[in-house]
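Ticket #187: bound-state structure for iron/sulfur cluster.
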Amino acid sequence: MSKSKVFDYVINPYIGCQHGCTYCYARFMKRFTGHKEAWGEFVDVKIIAAALLQREVEKMPPGRVWVSGVCDPYQPLEKTYELTKKCLEILVRHDWPITIQTKSPLVLRDVNLLRETDKVEVGLSVTTGDEGVRQLFEPSAPSIKERIKALEGLRLAGIRCLGLFPNGIMFATCLFGGRLYLIVIED
Ligand code: SF4
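RESOLUTION: The complex was predicted; output attached.
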């Protein structure tokens, strides 16, 4: 866990992101890893992320934790390693506020865990409504439809997902933490 300028803390269970968005600002991470592969073609898995986090939450003052700053915490590898889930379990158990940022419906896997706290919010970024454009700029990320379905699933589960307009779901985009978000505001 590191200090963050966006929230109090940030955790990144992975270095690199399989979604490989062409505009990704996190590419600068390559400087620190020595990877020669293109962004999106390598991921370092921080196997001990949860063990480290456990130690840190016991000695650091509570604060809002951003999950994640330079990777998608629900990129496909998370299905195998469940590092994000293990870190969230620790944060929820210690009642720390959490802001999750993802493009993946895999976040729905953890809905039961997220329902255990009222201090979590989830942002699903939707950069365009045009699937052709999405494929061009976010070639390996989930489709727009899948993200919107994920948002609906979160909303139905009673999890705060950055927003709502009266008369159902409407969409707006908002630049936040360097990314575009879909906002659903609840009445
Ligand atoms: S999902 Fe986010 S972190 Fe991953 S490549 Fe796209 S912009 Fe970068």
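RESOLUTION NOTES: The chain has a mean pLDDT of 86.
TICKET STATUS: resolved
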